[in-house]
Specification:
The complex is a heterodimer.
Chain A lengths: L8 H29 L2 E2 L7 E2 L3 H8 L1 H35 L4 H13 L2 H12 L4 H8 L16 H26 L3 H9 L4 H12 L1 H16 L3 H6 L11 H12 L2 H30 L1
Antiparallel strand pairs in A: 1-2
Helix pairs in contact in A: 1-13, 2-13, 3-7, 3-10, 4-7, 7-10, 8-9, 10-13, 12-13
Chain B lengths: L1 H14 L29 E7 L4 H17 L3 E7 L2 H13 L6 E3 L4 H9 L7 H7 L1 H4 L2 H4 L3 E2 L10 E2 L6 E9 L10 H13 L5 E2 L7 H13 L2 H8 L10 H15 L12 H9 L5 E5 L3 H8 L3 E4 L7 E5 L3 E3 L6 H11 L2 H9 L16 H16 L2 E2 L9 H13 L5 H16 L2
Parallel strand pairs in B: 1-2, 1-3, 7-8, 10-12
Antiparallel strand pairs in B: 3-11, 4-5, 6-8, 6-9, 6-10
Helix pairs in contact in B: 2-15, 9-11, 9-17, 11-18, 12-13, 17-18
The chains are: A mainly alpha, B alpha/beta.
Protein name (chain A): Raffinose/stachyose/melibiose transport system permease protein
Subcellular location (chain A): Cell membrane
InterPro entries (chain A): MetI-like, MetI-like_sf, UgpAE/MalFG_permease
């Protein structure tokens, strides 16, 4: 035991080898293969044709694809920003109120997360239907003019899909934040109160700084969920009406499996991966800097 | 650690530095020069068959056919793999490029399925067996065209025969007999009935277009009233020599929009699913429903003898097609046995079995004991469509991207996001980009 574990370095690598092999085989290899495929024009069956970066050029040039990426960015608002805001309020209230049966409420709030996305989508499709519960409620309270086929409306289809995401992600964010808030020592609240802070000031001075880490995790997870949205769009709108809810992941599936444009699909996938990577890197940098 | 990742990445890249698809065979496949039809004398054969006949009457007829086939030819054993339509569509591509490919497969007619397989040489032309077994005498050309491709897979609807279907389908009009005393005999009468239903406060034409494709069938039916079969067939098979921008297509688009304007469709139809829409019709809400024969069993169950089916009255064409055709793969070691199997499941006896299990046989329709009620209407309608030569393909067959183009364009048209002119320009752009090549 002359050297610390993992020294010399060569031995150290040996320790991570099993994990690295799995990681390489199931993540790095497919990723490399996707990058490789994205350089070809390939239908999935016959011999591919090397086309260099032209698939990527098409991603930038194709107005429909640019719109799809735009829709994904709109979804970030619904999947990440709104759930974090709602989650902060919900978690603070649940935490402060010290309600009876906190566990029960936590379970209720978290419930959407344990339901398969396809089931969620089918249920909401029913809710949004022209004679669905949502329109029934609107008509019952006299807002007949607002009732519509939500998922078939050009202005409301994308927000309608987004709201499903908000409903789905809020539980996860709330539970994450509750865990973070539970770790805040009671003395800090006490100190803040002695300094004369009300509930709002206390929230900004004590709670918010303490859960920065949790917020970063929540934002990372939800942003990734927003950008890779596929099942929800596939089941609810198939990208419609027109193309007003098309998203990049749907295009990847559509091109690879329906149109037989494997190269182009791979290029979109790689772009999406890079976008997700850049955004999450940014989020984590921001969180790191502010905690340091 | 970073270095290792880079090394691993580099390794994985070099390991894959071969052109995708280079492992699979390519080039058009050719049929063997001589054909044997004496299946009993082919020796011991095992045939692997992939089909999608998994539901109700479909599954029943397939099981019966295979049992009869194995009893007649004890030397041929059928190894059947059946999957749902969606599963078949996604797995067939991989299965065909593998070395252990099935002998007989049921492949979707469209360009992105059968067309691609033909292009890759994975299906063999069936013409020699077609003449040996005289399929052409029982199957009219308007039916066989759905399984025809040129050897390079580029031309659809002409050329070699790559598959033979068992069943047919046609898009027509379901009507609620309690609301329509006498089915309209002409297009003008049909539109008058729609108006009458509107005045009576009913939903004239039940419709839900959230899934994008349902409008293709409604628009196709309207177009059938204005355009001749030859024109639509060229457009729908994506063959050069036609155009979307003619007055009769403009008229069809305008009529569709006027139907929406007149309130013939239910409110919020673009936000209503296809299934909920026909289920509403099944509950008695709505006077008419434009849909395919595939809804027969469900609507029969829902409405009993209150529902009838008719071909669009007095139209110049009728939209329809075939069930998924059965083809032979280039990897099949015994294509003669495979052809014998296909011949058996499409024989006159097989058509009888199809009828008795509640399916719509595609050939020898006149020879069948037509069932009563809704099924009888459908038998009659399909028989008329085939015999009159008015059958035209679905519009979305045209190009690999047309399904999406026309689906989205129709949603735009119906929601007034596009004028009929812009709508047709969009279809023309997709069509000419493909057919012009």
């Amino acid at each position: 035991m002359s050297s610390p574990p993992g020294e010399p370095r060569r031995i150290g690598y040996l320790y991570i080898l099993p994990a690295l092999v799995v990681y390489g085989a199931f993540l790095l290899y497919p990723l490399g293969r996707a990058v490789h495929l994205s350089l070809f024009e390939w239908d999935g069956i016959t011999l591919g044709k090397f086309v260099g970066l032209s698939n990527y050029a098409d991603v930038v040039r194709d107005a429909g694809l640019r719109a799809a990426f735009g829709h994904a960015l709109v979804l970030i608002v619904f999947y990440a920003v709104l759930p974090v805001l709602i989650g902060l309020v919900l978690a603070t209230v649940l935490q402060r109120a010290r309600v009876r049966g906190l566990g029960f409420f936590r379970t209720i709030v978290f419930l959407p997360q344990v339901i398969a996305m396809v089931v969620v989508a089918v249920a909401w499709r029913h809710i949004y239907a022209p004679d669905g519960p949502l329109n029934d409620v609107l008509r019952a309270i006299g807002l007949d003019s607002l009732a519509r086929g939500w998922l078939g409306d050009y202005a409301f289809a994308l927000p309608a899909v987004g709201v499903i995401g908000t409903w789905f992600e809020t539980g996860l964010v709330t539970v994450l934040l509750l865990a973070g808030m539970a770790r805040i020592p009671a003395e800090r609240y006490e100190a803040a109160r002695l300094d004369g802070a009300g509930p709002v000031a206390e929230f900004f001075a004590v709670v918010l700084p303490a859960v920065r880490g949790e917020i970063a995790v929540a934002v990372t997870l939800t942003v990734i969920a927003a950008l890779r949205t596929f099942d929800l769009v596939y089941v609810t709108t198939s990208g419609g009406p027109g193309t007003s809810t098309s998203v990049p992941s749907y295009e990847v599936y559509h091109r690879a499996f329906e149109l037989g444009q494997v190269g182009s699909a791979a290029a979109i996938g790689v772009c999406l991966t890079m976008l997700i990577f850049a955004i999450t890197l940014g989020v984590n940098r921001l969180a790191d800097r502010s905690t340091a | 650690m970073k270095k290792t990742i880079v090394a691993a990445l580099a390794l994985s890249l070099t390991a894959t530095a071969c052109t995708p698809g280079s492992g699979s065979s390519s080039g058009p496949a050719s049929a063997p020069s001589s054909v044997r039809t004496d299946a009993a004398a082919l020796g011991q054969v095992e045939l692997t068959v992939w089909d999608q006949e998994v539901r109700g009457g479909q599954a029943a007829q397939m099981t019966a056919q295979i049992k009869a086939f194995e009893a007649k030819y004890p030397n041929i054993k059928i190894k059947r793999v059946s999957r749902s339509f969606d599963d078949l569509k996604t797995t067939l591509r991989l299965a065909l490029s593998g070395n252990d490919a099935p002998d007989v497969v049921q492949a979707n007619n469209g360009r992105s399925d059968m067309g691609e397989f033909v292009k890759a040489g994975q299906l063999v032309p069936l013409d020699k067996w077609a003449s040996a077994y005289k399929w052409g005498e029982r199957y009219p050309d308007s039916v066989l065209q759905y399984s025809r491709y040129s050897a390079d897979g580029k031309t659809f609807g002409e050329g070699n025969l790559y598959g033979l279907p068992q069943v047919g389908e046609v898009v027509g009009i379901y009507y609620n007999k309690t609301k329509v005393a006498k089915p309209p005999a002409s297009w003008a009468e049909f539109e008058a009935e729609l108006d009458k239903a509107k005045q009576a406060g009913d939903v004239p034409l039940q419709f839900g277009n959230l899934d994008k494709w349902p409008a293709i069938h409604v628009f196709g039916t309207v177009l059938d009233n204005y355009a001749l079969p030859d024109q639509i067939t060229k457009l729908a098979f994506g063959r050069p020599g036609a155009t979307w921008t003619t007055p009769e297509k403009q008229q069809a688009a305008e009529v569709l929009v006027s139907w929406a304007d007149n309130g013939y469709f239910p409110k919020g139809f673009n936000g209503q699913g296809y299934d909920p829409a026909w289920q509403e019709f099944g509950k008695g809400k709505g006077t008419f429903l434009i849909a395919g024969t595939w809804l027969q069993a469900d609507l029969q169950k829902a409405l009993g003898d209150k529902v009838g089916f008719m071909l669009p009255p007095g139209t110049k064409s009728v939209t329809g097609g075939t069930g998924l055709p059965f083809g032979i793969t280039n990897k099949s070691k015994n294509p003669d046995a495979a052809a014998a199997y296909i011949n058996f499941i499409t024989s006159p006896d097989a058509m009888k079995t199809l009828t008795s299990t509640g399916n719509l046989p595609i050939a020898d329709i006149a020879a069948q004991q037509a069932p009563a009620g809704l099924a009888g209407d459908i038998f009659k309608g399909f028989g008329t469509a085939v015999d009159s030569g008015l059958l035209v393909p679905y519009l979305d067959y045209a190009t690999p991207t047309m399904y999406d183009t026309i689906g989205a364009a129709l949603q735009d048209l119906l929601a007034k996001k596009a004028t009929p002119q812009q709508f047709l320009d969009k279809l023309e752009a997709d069509y000419s980009k493909f057919a012009g090549k």
